[in-house]
Specification:
Two copies of one chain form a homodimer. Chain A is of the alpha+beta class and about 130 residues long. Helices cover about 35% and strands about 25% of the residues of chain A. The first copy, chain A, has five helices and five strands; from the N terminus they run H-H-H-E-E-E-E-H-E-H. Chain A binds a DNA duplex (30 and 30 nucleotides) through helix 1 and helix 3.
Chain lengths: ~130, ~130
Amino acid sequence: MDKQQILSKNQQIIFDIIEKAKEPIKAYSILFNVQKKGIKAPLQVYRALDKLVEIGKIHKIESRNSFVACKNSNCQISKATAFSICESCEEVSEISDNKLSKYLESFQNKAGMKFKKYNLEFFGLCKKCSVK
Amino acid sequence: MDKQQILSKNQQIIFDIIEKAKEPIKAYSILFNVQKKGIKAPLQVYRALDKLVEIGKIHKIESRNSFVACKNSNCQISKATAFSICESCEEVSEISDNKLSKYLESFQNKAGMKFKKYNLEFFGLCKKCSVK
DNA sequence: TACATAATGTTATAATATAACATTAATTAA
DNA sequence: TTAATTAATGTTATATTATAACATTATGTA
């Protein structure tokens, strides 16, 4: 059983938006969505985002500057993330492939660097878009 | 033998800066560096960067919004990039590991998406920083 | 309680990136 | 070798993404 993180007010509001979005969402789009709830400033959003990323509830899609909820049901693997990104429709999905993560977690490079974390982004065309 | 790309004036100027830098360099830092050479506007830099990324002469470190010259001597694998990033000193190096790239190139996810490209960023402490 | 740590609120501003339009250079096809 | 096409450049303005700095309030812990 993993430690259930209790979110603060702003963190919860912002997490809910991201989770409902079902697609990557950008910080300023989140800001727009939460203005009716009293969150007015970018920094309030970014602070919540930072925390949510830190505890693994959401991930940042670096190549898109956008955020998605973690789909690996409750697991805290914010340290090992992999995504597939459709370059046509921009659909993003989190990859959870045990072999892949094992392989990458154990990867050691020649410089002897010890890794704590990785992020992998695959690009291509999703099924729908590759038919078009 | 791979096709030798001839760079335009701006592309060459900007590529030279990045190659000399030996560490990731940001777009506006490049801009500052090339102002004496007549390149005055961000867009001039970004356009050259886009092209250089496209032809694989440089890569973008997405998590850092910075750019490095490709170290895989002349090869055009801008489609398959992997880096190790030290979270302390921010040293970045390009990983060229045949096994790793073969593994990732052949990776197929469950949704049957066909990948054309990937980018992998490992994070940790480099040798120097892990001693401190 | 009191001390420490985390979260919030707010204003201003920094850093990163692109839109839109005009012009010039290089390539290619007739 | 000209005309047509495509690639690159120049320029101004502006959009987008992200953080600094400082004051305050809430929460957790000794």
